[in-house]
Amino acid sequence: IAAANGAKLVDINMGCPVRKVVKNGAGAALMKDPERIRNILQAIRGAVNIPLSVKIRSGWSKSAVNAVDIALIAQDCGADAVTVHPRTAEQGFSGSADWQIIAQVKKALTIPVIGSGDIRTGMDALEMRRASSCDAFMIGRGALGNPWIFHDTASALNGETMPPPPSLTKRREIIQNHLEKEIAYAGERHGYQCFRKHLLWYTKGLRGGARFRQIAGNLTSAGQMQEALDLYLAEMDNHTE
Predict the structure, then answer these.
(1) Residue 239 pLDDT exceeds 70
(2) Is the CB of residue 144 less than 8 Å from the CB of residue 177?
(3) Where residue 36 falls among pLDDT bands split at 50, 70, 90?
(4) What is the SS3 assignment for 211-234?
(5) Residue 95 dihedral angles phi and psi, to the nearest 5°
(6) CA torsion through residues 130, 134, 136, 138, sign
(7) Fewer CB within 10 Å, N side or C side of the chain?
(8) Catalytic: 77?
(9) DSSP annotation of 120
């Protein structure tokens, strides 16, 4: 169905640790059932000709780390790439990602290996490549409120001077553009509700950000939020003069 509707690739997410997903045997729960993984991937590979990738974790638990074994099954079934998030399902998003697990998978496979986990800056991606020799990167939570991470990462990997953080003017432009796209996609009410969490991420780490987030959490419309944001950024401008 995905291929028939124009999908350019199919990615099987065997890394999601969310309870409502794993309790149904999906997501990271599949890491506990290698033969089921094999059956799923063989069926998908037989059904589509577009690229097939698989995202996995280190394993289900600290005592059941099997990323290399699962990655080899994926390769054997015709997957074109494997993404590794080197935390166990039991870890969820806590603790640190063990990039050496990515290195072990990379050493075992001949297909491309994509590294994921704890990439919050462009330099983090560079360090992951040095530690694991991965072929590419998947950036997740590090992009929340920080969409310029992709430009920074490209600069780091190309050996270029790291660009400075975006100015307040540029940050305002990015936030405004993001909000407009959310509203155009989902309508004003739902678009604003979806965007509000992004606004909290965008202001994380800025002077007065905690106070602004308290205010933003009580706003009920895009107009109110825009007014509060403009006032907050104007105050920031005054502090930097």
Answers:
(1) no
(2) no
(3) very high
(4) HHHHHHCCCCCHHHHHHHHHHHHH
(5) 65, -160
(6) negative
(7) C
(8) no
(9) -
At 184, which amino acid appears? A
User: Predicted confidence band at 211 (pLDDT cuts at 50, 70, 90)?
Assistant: confident
pLDDT at position 28 over 70: yes
Instruction: Report the run of H or E that residue 36 belongs to, with start and end.
Output: helix 34-47
Q: What is the pLDDT of residue 241?
A: 46
CB atoms within 10 A of CB 25: 11
For residue 101, what pLDDT is reported?
98
Q: Which amino acid is at 130?
A: R
Do the bridges between strand 52-59 and strand 81-88 make them parallel or antiparallel, or are there none, so unpaired? parallel
CB 67 within 8 A of CB 14: no
Nearest residue to 116 via CA among 147, 140, 151 = 140
List the structure tokens of 88. 């166990």
Q: According to the model, what pLDDT value does residue 56 have?
A: 98
Residue whose structure tokens are 């075992």: 108
Which residue pairs, CB below 8 angstroms and at least 24 apart, start in 226-233? 226/176, 226/179, 229/172, 229/175, 229/199, 230/172, 232/203, 232/208, 233/168, 233/171, 233/172
> For residues 11 and 75, what is the distance between their CA atoms, to the nearest angstrom?
14
To which residue do tokens 């996995």 refer?
56
Tokens of 241: 């003069």
Yes or no: say if 156 and 150 are a contact pair by the CB < 8 Å rule.
no
CA distances, 148 to each of 76, 157, 175, 202, 225 (Å): 37, 14, 12, 11, 22
